[in-house]
Design goal:
- This protein is an alpha/beta fold and 283 residues long.
- The chain has two domains: 124 residues, 3-Layer(aba) Sandwich (Rossmann fold); 121 residues, Riboflavin kinase-like (Elongation Factor Tu (Ef-tu), domain 3).
- The chain is built from eight helices and 15 strands.
- It has a six-stranded antiparallel barrel. Strands 3-2-1-4-7 form a five-stranded parallel sheet.
- The structure holds flavin mononucleotide and adenosine-5'-diphosphate (ADP).
- The site of adenosine-5'-diphosphate has 21 residues, from strand 1, helix 1 and strand 4.
């Protein structure tokens, strides 16, 4: 039986003795709790539904020391329970332990859940109880809702880290440096973008992290088009081709339409001062 893999890595599957199974978009605190139950020859089995947008597949390995093996959901979801377990045993011949969460289900019509897994797998099955943070169940869908609401602080609590996106630098309208402040304009694919507005952020360029402020949204005051723009505080940055990373910390305000460039500029300067104060007070 062939399991279709969407990528391969270098760790030999024959050495793997324990796996954690799930979608793992976000690599959030509950996912990390599962990984704590892996042994030193552990691995992550990530089932790709195609909807990941918190930690899209190629950015996921960054958040765990365990190798991640990816499988395409469409190629395994039709399986009856015994065949799913058989596949795991074939893929990982030394497998002794499987770690899943309380809500893990698998196989045809998601008919098989943790009890069935215990019955079918000849080894240890560890089932993790529901993990909550401040009484809120940690799930990728809950984190997405906080991001869409602009509640970065709650999203970050559930993630156990600052929400980070990757983008490619593009040329902006050319208005920023002249009329407002210089910004790096980004094209962002694959990642969920938080609600439109202005955010306190950190920006990583060429492995260096800078304090920054980021605007996300339709530039309703200028050309109306959607933009992701970052202004690096206290540094002169030359535009370059680096992939840029933005870590979101806190939302300052909503996107707004201003009657003049002058008013927008004044507001941007206020936003920058507030952001600088934030960084002064946390360090
Ligand atoms: C901190 C900050 C806040 C911003 N806030 C708004 C806003 O509320 N409304 C808006 O239309 N544009 C806002 N902008 C975007 C400006 O319109 C944008 O920087 C300007 O159009 C220059 O774009 P350019 O870099 O493509 O030349 C903001 C930009 C920054 C850096
Ligand atoms: N809050 C949680 N508590 C315990 N286990 C969880 C929790 N969230 C996810 N898991 C487990 O982690 C694995 C990956 O789950 P997944 O469905 O990708 O997470 P999410 O619910 O965040 O989308 C599954 O085995 C799942 O049961």
């Amino acid at each position: 039986m062939e399991m279709k893999k969407s990528s391969s890595i270098l760790v030999n599957k024959n050495t793997i003795t324990s796996i954690a199974i799930g979608g793992f978009d976000g690599m959030h605190v509950a996912h990390q709790e599962l990984f704590k139950n892996l042994d030193e020859n552990g691995a992550i089995v990530s089932i790709e539904s195609g909807y990941a947008n918190l930690t899209p597949k190629r950015y996921r390995q960054e958040y765990s020391i365990y190798p991640i093996y990816y499988y395409v959901l469409d190629s395994i979801k039709h399986l009856e329970g015994d065949l799913f377990v058989k596949l795991l045993n074939e893929e990982f011949p030394k497998l002794k332990k499987i770690v899943v969460g309380y809500d893990f289900c698998f196989g045809k019509n998601r008919r098989y859940c943790t009890e069935k897994l215990k019955e079918l797998f000849d080894g240890v099955v560890v089932v993790i109880d529901e993990i909550k943070v401040e009484n809120i169940p940690v799930h990728s869908r809950v984190i997405r809702e906080y991001l869409k609401d602009g509640d970065i602080q709650m999203a970050n609590k559930l993630l156990g880290k600052e929400y980070k996106i990757y983008g490619q630098q593009i040329t902006g309208q050319g208005l920023g440096a002249k009329n407002f402040v210089p910004t790096i304009n980004l094209k962002v694919k694959e990642f969920l973008l938080p609600k439109e507005g202005v955010y306190i952020t950190k920006t990583i360029l060429d492995n260096k992290e800078y304090n920054s402020i980021t605007f996300l949204g339709h530039r309703v005051t200028t050309d109306g088009s959607y933009a992701v723009e970052t202004h690096i505080l206290d540094e002169e940055i030359k535009e370059n081709n680096y992939t840029t990373q933005i870590k979101f910390i806190k939302k300052i305000r909503d996107n707004q339409k201003f009657e003049s460039f002058e008013e927008l500029k004044n507001q941007i300067l206020k936003d920058i001062n507030l952001t600088k104060d934030y960084f002064i007070n946390i360090y």
